[in-house]
Write a sequence for this structure.
């Protein structure tokens, strides 16, 4: 029974509640979609796929059917004008196959029409080899060759043991070659360079003014270094010869035989003979390779370690630069400056600075830091190396400072808010104890504001770590031969160019010679960068909560 | 109307205004223990926030080693007067004053006087306890730290002495180095009192120190105040008439920025000279 005491009422604005819920749902769906796509595609890049052997219908009425072996990468609707499908009204599909063996085919991907496929099967015994060049090789093993020894056929029970041992030996030799060429020969080269500089300095003097003994000793040292270099180079040559001595004979899917030097093989696995656990192990090994190795093959293979390291070092340097600067500015603005139209104008300016496109900061960094400051530094301290610039070109220091400048507003705004949140009563308590304003700020206000300041700092770090555009102008490169921190004096090379995750993604995705091969790397690198930024943010939350527990005042 | 011959600047008084007797002089036993009956002299003190005058020609003497209570309805300016004594009002933008406040005859507004030196001689306890985000120990020795004292033995000795004086030592002696923010409200307020006396000040200003506390904690703080007055001159702002009657030796009643009446607490509460005072202390308004 409907009581007249409680009549039915229309709830005003109820649809708006639904509207806001829809808005949130849409936003969440987009974020989860993006994260999910990156997560799935990024992880798929490391998961070992099965290899299929596809028999294609012969092109004419007679003739042999073609056989293709590869990993099925994609299954998609065929582009172009719709062709009637014999099986019915469904659109024609095609598969993208990764066939590897780029040195044989000249390309590593191929599309096949699903309509042309006669038979699909999984060949057993096929191996996938990672190589130092030309990308992966898909082939059946035949034998192992070592000069002066009997060939070891693949059927021999010792075959895979020997193969593994040889691959490990080759890895060790590769490490030695690297050490020789990068460290030892690099050191000699640097010494030769410095002696040459001194010789050049002597040459600028008039002939009769040149001190002969000094000249003599320099040229002698040069000759000694030259001899040492020849010795090291000979060692490296010998190692390289050994890398090519042992060979793997294998049969390509089309039946041809090929000899592959063991030194070119990085690793191998049998995609069709591995169980679930074996594939997981391969997956783990590939993830580790991705995180710890240097890139190969124009960045489309290998790892991203130099980019991770470069991003990390740059972000740390940026934080070191931005923290004192931003915090000090905010302290003055909030604690000392007389609040009025001027401080309001400064605040508006700082907030606007946060909205300036980052490329503008890049251009400013290039003009001010690189050309102006760097040019001055070169003229003052590295004049003998000119015209080769040392600091007068993009590098780690200038990139960090440019990003520091860009993220100053974030730190200033966060610090100001944190300072404003420190209750007045605490400041008064300190002042009433006979503390000066500076003592109050330093001993009471800043510790109480520390959680908020740290949050701002880590947001700035996250922004800096994900920034690309300005870095392209001030020091990031596609491939840096050396890490910016290494064992060579002075250990931190602020003038060096470096690699960066964000730029790496751009480079892989849009500058790569083989975009199909680079695609999984793009997803994997994006996944890692996202993970890094999320980790930074989680760290921010963790540190803030920890500090809050430590310093929390009743007012928070 | 009784005129005390020793009342400060009595000749300057206008007759149409209520007379503020110097309470110290009114207490016959005031000088027997050598205490200065006019430790703090507030003379013709006007105070403005911008154009708004909140204190009008205040004339009040505060005696040494006694508890003086400032009472009156909200907004009457008693807190402003209290904060004038250690110049905390300097921090307020647009604040200015006329007249003078002297401590032991020395003006606190003298241009050569560093305000920090003044605040080191005057401890202050606030309405809401305001421990710093530091350990209990660091809170107590904070005034010494900012004064540059580094000797561990001095700091430890001071911490124990002040915490004992604030009747907090037994409760916190085992956790001196844990955060002060983990203490209860009453403990925090006693910690703030310990901090306020760490510098061995002469004067202790208390701005409604018990207003945020429960009756048990309030009773403890009141006991503490009675003990502390042996050594310190205490000026306390309170809204609680019973509290003023219980703990103070002298009481000054303010109304609308003017000092209506002041004198020994007993007299103010039993035989006030002004109707307004009587109404207020008996709870008829305010």
């Amino acid at each position: 029974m409907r009581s007249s005491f409680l009549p039915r009422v229309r709830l005003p604005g109820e649809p708006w509640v639904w509207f806001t819920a829809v808005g949130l749902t849409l936003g969440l769906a987009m974020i989860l979609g993006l994260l999910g796509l990156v997560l799935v595609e990024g992880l798929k890049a490391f998961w070992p796929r099965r290899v299929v052997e596809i028999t294609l219908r012969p092109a004419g009425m007679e003739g042999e059917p073609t056989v293709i072996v590869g990993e099925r990468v994609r299954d998609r609707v065929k582009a172009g004008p719709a062709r009637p499908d014999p099986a019915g009204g469904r659109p024609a599909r095609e598969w993208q196959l990764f066939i590897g063996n780029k040195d044989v085919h000249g390309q590593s991907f191929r599309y096949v029409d699903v309509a042309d496929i006669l038979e699909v099967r999984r060949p057993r015994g096929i191996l996938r080899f990672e190589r130092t060049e030309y990308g992966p090789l898909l082939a059946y093993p035949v034998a192992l060759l070592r000069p002066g020894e009997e060939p070891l056929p693949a059927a021999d029970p010792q075959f895979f043991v020997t193969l593994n041992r040889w691959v490990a030996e080759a890895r060790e030799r590769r490490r030695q070659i690297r050490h020789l060429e990068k460290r030892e020969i690099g050191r000699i080269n640097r010494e030769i360079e410095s002696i040459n500089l001194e010789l050049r300095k002597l040459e600028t003097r008039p002939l009769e003014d040149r001190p002969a003994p000094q000249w003599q000793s320099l040229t002698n040292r040069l000759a000694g270094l030259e001899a040492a270099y020849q010795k090291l180079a000979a060692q490296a040559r010998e190692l390289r010869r050994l890398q090519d001595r042992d060979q793997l004979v294998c049969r390509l899917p089309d039946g041809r035989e090929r000899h592959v030097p063991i030194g070119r093989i990085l690793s191998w696995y049998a995609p069709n003979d591995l169980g679930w656990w074996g594939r997981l192990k391969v997956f783990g090994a590939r993830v580790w390779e991705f995180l710890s190795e240097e890139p190969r093959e124009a960045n489309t293979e290998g790892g991203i370690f130099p980019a991770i390291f470069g991003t990390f070092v740059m972000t740390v340097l940026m934080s070191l630069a931005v923290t004192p600067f931003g915090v000090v500015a905010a302290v003055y603005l909030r604690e000392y400056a007389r609040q009025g139209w001027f401080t309001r104008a400064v605040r508006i300016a700082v907030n606007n600075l946060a909205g300036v496109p980052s490329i503008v900061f890049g251009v400013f960094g290039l003009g001010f830091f690189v050309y102006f400051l760097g040019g001055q530094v070169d003229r003052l301290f590295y004049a003998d190396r000119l015209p080769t610039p040392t600091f007068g070109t993009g590098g780690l220091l200038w990139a960090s400072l440019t990003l520091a400048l860009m993220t100053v507003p974030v730190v200033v705004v966060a610090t100001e808010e944190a300072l404003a949140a420190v209750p007045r009563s605490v400041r008064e308590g300190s002042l009433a104890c006979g503390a000066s304003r500076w003592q109050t700020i330093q001993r009471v206000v800043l510790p109480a504001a520390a959680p908020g300041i740290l949050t701002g700092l880590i947001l700035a770090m996250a922004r800096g770590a994900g920034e690309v555009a300005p870095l392209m102008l001030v020091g990031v490169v596609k491939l840096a031969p050396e890490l910016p921190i290494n064992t060579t004096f002075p250990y931190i090379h602020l003038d060096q160019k470096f690699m960066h995750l964000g730029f790496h993604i751009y480079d892989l995705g849009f500058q790569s010679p083989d975009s199909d091969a680079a695609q999984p790397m793009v997803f994997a690198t994006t996944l890692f960068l996202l993970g890094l930024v999320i980790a930074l943010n989680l760290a921010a939350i963790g540190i803030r909560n920890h500090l809050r527990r430590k310093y929390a005042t009743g007012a928070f | 109307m009784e005129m005390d011959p020793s009342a400060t600047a009595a000749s300057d008084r206008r007759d149409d205004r209520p007379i503020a007797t110097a309470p110290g002089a009114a207490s016959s036993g005031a000088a027997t223990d050598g205490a200065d009956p006019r430790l703090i002299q507030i003379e013709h003190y006007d105070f403005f926030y911008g154009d708004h005058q909140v204190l009008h020609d205040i004339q009040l003497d505060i005696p040494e080693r006694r508890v003086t209570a400032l009472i009156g309805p909200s907004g009457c300016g008693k807190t402003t007067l209290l904060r004038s004594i250690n110049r905390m009002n300097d921090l307020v933008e647009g604040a200015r004053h006329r007249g003078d406040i002297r401590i032991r005859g020395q003006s606190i507004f003298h241009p050569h006087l560093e305000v920090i030196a003044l605040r080191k001689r005057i401890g202050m306890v606030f309405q809401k306890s305001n421990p710093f985000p530091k350990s209990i120990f660091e809170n107590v020795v904070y005034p010494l730290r900012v004064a540059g004292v580094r000797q561990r033995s001095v700091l430890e000795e001071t911490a124990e002495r002040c915490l004992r004086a604030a009747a907090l030592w037994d409760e916190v002696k085992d956790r001196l180095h844990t955060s002060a923010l983990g203490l209860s409200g009453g403990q925090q307020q006693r910690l703030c009192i310990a901090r306020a006396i760490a510098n061995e000040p002469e004067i202790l200003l208390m701005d409604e120190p018990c207003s945020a506390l429960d009756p048990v904690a309030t009773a403890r703080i009141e006991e503490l105040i009675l003990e502390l007055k042996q050594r310190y001159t205490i000026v306390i702002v309170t809204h609680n008439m019973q509290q003023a009657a219980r703990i103070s030796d002298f009481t000054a009643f303010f109304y609308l920025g003017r000092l209506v009446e002041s004198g020994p607490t007993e007299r103010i509460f039993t035989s006030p000279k002004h109707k307004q005072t009587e109404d207020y202390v008996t709870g008829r308004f305010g």
